[in-house]
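Thread title: Can someone regenerate the structure for this chain?

I was given the following input by a collaborator and told the matching structure tokens would be attached. They weren't. Posting the sequence so someone can regenerate them.
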Amino acid sequence: MFTGLVAATGRLASLLEGRLAVEADRLGLAAGDSISVNGVCLTAIEVGEEGFAAEVMGETLRRSALGELEAGDPVNLEPALRASDRLGGHIVQGHVDGTGVVESVAQDGFARLVRIEAPRRLLRYVVEKGSIAVDGVSLTVAEVGDESFSVGLVPETLERTTLGTVAVGRRVNLEVDVLAKYVEKLVSQTVEAP
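Best answer:
Regenerated them for you:
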């Protein structure tokens, strides 16, 4: 489990034949630890002074935007939450629900407003002032439309994450609030029950 509070950024070293290598500070990682890479929960299989490596299944590449990364691209990194850590963002599993495409980026005073086109199957879980993870970053939804939603990025987020360089047309990983999915399932089962 994660919080969506990015601990550091790293750089993709390579992604070949299901093996992803990232150049980054150690972040206290050990082989076998979970690490969120752009919002995707992976297991570190090797950890060294220069970074770490993880295996990436075909399902993960199909469901996320990881497969579109190229060597040298920056990535958001967050080690798994420990029981003693503060829960400062929101509950993020690292199980990407799908991807969206950046539709627009506009300055909004000292912040930046980013609108993301998303599949309707995901938008049903997105609510104004609710939480969403975009490339692993815990964000508050500013507005929801029929085909997209917007989030505001404060200077701290712009500086500490890859979202500071996000551009129109970029595909991003999305994870909706897991609580919304559980509520929907429970309510639908209650309605269907005799």
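The first strand starts at residue 8 and ends at 16.
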